[in-house]
Amino acid sequence: MEMKKKYRKLNIASQAEILRSHQRDDDFVKYLREKVIDILQILQRKTGLLPFIHSDIPFKLVYFFFTSGMGNQTLGEEYTGLVQANLKAYKVPSIYARLLAIILECFGEKALIRLLKQLELSINHPHSKLTPTTVIFLNSFISKMYTIIPVFILLHKGLFYIFGRYYSLSKRIAGIDYAKVYGHRPIDTISSGLRLLGIATLIQCMLKIWQNYKSENHFEKYSILDEKHNKLMCQLCLEKVPTTTTPCGHLFCWFCLTDWLHTKPQCPLCREHVVPSRIVHVMNL
């Protein structure tokens, strides 16, 4: 009960204080990375660790594990007088919430992009058993996700500038906020300036969404015109007039279809089993 009363007296940290705290943490991570590179150069053992030292992620993991992960303030939080807190529950965030925030902060967006890339490779693999319609749908969905993710992150940043809650998506998912426990608060003009920046960021998001929507419409119009042209062409090479039909009725040029059936005895479009001897060369095309 005392803990609850104590947290009710805490002030929510302002946008400027949170930004200053994270900037100081980022500066220390970069400084730590530079020192490690200097040590490796002296020891002449830099070559094998190049993939790691060119990224800030390993250093962020170490830094935040020994600070936030162990229930301590980061250097930026000490400098600005902030503490991580779950203000809705009026309690200190659990160790699991802190670790979740650290993992998502370091790997969240990159892991999602990597997952989409792996899914894209799997969908478009030559031995995939998906139908062409499904492949087209999934490729369209993944393409939209590539554009939506950066816009969504930018939108969240704009909301932070305006409302001052949850600096990053990782903090929001983990339910971690910031409370001001000591030190002077910044003047109101700084927060007003950041709110103006937030409005500009939201406008930028809307423009990006409109631009993506416009480009998609242009692509769809082009695809419709291109599809009419492709109907008169082989569906494998898209260059030659189709002269050969499968038992299921799909048209291709002779060389493309015979090469395809030598590796996979299936129709390239509907995946129906096709014996190479059953294809018919249509002479009047």
Automatic annotation (TrEMBL):
Concerning InterPro entries, the annotation shows: PEX2/10, Pex_N, Znf_RING, Znf_RING/FYVE/PHD, Znf_RING_CS
Q: Which reaction does it catalyse?
A: S-ubiquitinyl-[E2 ubiquitin-conjugating enzyme]-L-cysteine + [acceptor protein]-L-lysine = [E2 ubiquitin-conjugating enzyme]-L-cysteine + N(6)-ubiquitinyl-[acceptor protein]-L-lysine
Q: Where are the transmembrane segments?
A: 136-163
Q: How does it sit in the membrane?
A: Multi-pass membrane protein
Which pathway does this chain act in?
Protein modification; protein ubiquitination
> Which Gene3D superfamilies does this entry report, sorted A to Z?
Zinc/RING finger domain, C3HC4 (zinc finger)
Q: Give GO terms for biological process.
A: protein import into peroxisome matrix
Location in or out of the cell: Peroxisome membrane
Any one GO cellular component localisation term in the record: peroxisomal membrane
Every copy of the RING-type domain together lies at 234-271
Report the EC number(s), separated by commas if there are several: 2.3.2.27
Question: What's a single GO MF annotation on this record?
Answer: zinc ion binding
The entry's protein name is RING-type E3 ubiquitin transferase
